[in-house]
Amino acid sequence: MIRLTGVEHTYDGRGGQVKALHRTDLTIEPGEFVSVVGASGCGKTTLLRIVAGLVRASAGTVEADGECGVVFQRPSLYPWLSVAGNVEFGLKMRRVPRAQRKATARQYLDLVGLADFADAAPYELSGGMQQRCQIARVLATEPSTVLMDEPFGALDALTRERLQGELRRIATGRTVLFVTHSVEEAVLLSSRVLVMSPRPGRIVLDLPVGNDAAQDRSSPAILAAIDEVRAVVTST
Ligand SMILES: Nc1ncnc2c1ncn2[C@@H]1O[C@H](COP(=O)(O)OP(=O)(O)OP(=O)(O)O)[C@@H](O)[C@H]1O
Ligand SMILES: [Mg+2]
Fold it and tell me: Which ligand lies nearest to the CA atom of residue 195 in the structure?
């Protein structure tokens, strides 16, 4: 479970203080798939980093149990390791035997369509490919909580749709906090959509959405949810 109580955050930046996150209370139950949408700069990454324990909130308390894997907004791969090496890294740290490590890495590289680039260096990949490698690296460790910061932003529409489908499958039984700019993506993937106001971010809509395995893009309920979220996003 993830629970934020009275969390707020102010950065001490070079240009002065920036209040990024307004007082926020948020509880995410195990197995929920929660998306966060909101304008650029409203504090989505800040929220995710606080949940991940990478940023210490200026106020409030954060509880998050279990292992959490983070897919960052900008690809962050180890430049001195191959693509497969990057995916295997977390498994190696967990002392997973070599053969099993290789097999798992291959499975997740396959999943993101990078099987042919296992031996390449990160700099030899395009931005979208680096992002997919990062996704494989995080999913390979099978964390109980997955935090994803616009993981599909740099991908073409087809790849994006395929990975959305894979993510829904992989998300089963896990807790996911997913940041995206796409209202449609948020509604189609999640069981719950949060909309944040412009900076300092606060949650202005918390909408449960249906979440059966085969989400139909054209169902009236989905279209209504997309409309509702979009209306709040554009009015804040
Ligand atoms: N390390 C930092 N130091 C100072 N200010 C920061 C830092 N990181 C973020 N900010 C500021 O906090 C605010 C929220 O940033 P954040 O990265 O959380 O936004 P975001 O919603 O993720 O935006 P985007 O959709 O563009 O990724 C912004 O005004 C930003 O300038
Ligand atoms: Mg961000």
Answer: 1
Total number of domains in the chain: 2
Tell how far the Cα of 217 is from the centroid of ligand 1, in angstroms: 31
137-191 per-position pLDDT tens digit: 999 999 999 999 999 988 899 999 988 988 888 888 899 999 999 999 999 999 9
Cα 212 to ligand 1 centre (Å): 33
Q: How far is the CA of 158 from the centre of ligand 2 (A)?
A: 23
- Sheet strands side by side (includes 145-149): 68-71, 145-149, 175-179, 33-37, 192-196, 203-208
Domain boundary among 143, 160, 175: 143
Q: Is the CB of 197 under 6 A from ligand 1?
A: no
What number does the ligand 1 atom closest to the CA of 55 have? 1
Residue 25 resides in a domain: yes
Q: In terms of residue numbers, what domain contains 138?
A: 77-143
Beta strands in the chain (DSSP E): 2-13, 16-28, 33-37, 59-64, 68-71, 145-149, 175-179, 192-196, 203-208
Task: Tell whether 117 and 225 lie within a shared domain.
Answer: no
Nearest CA to ligand 1 atom 7: 11
What CATH code is carried by the domain that includes residue 187? 3.40.50.300
The pLDDT of residue 189 is 92
What's the pLDDT tens digit per position in 35-81? 999 999 999 999 999 999 999 999 999 999 888 899 999 888 999 99
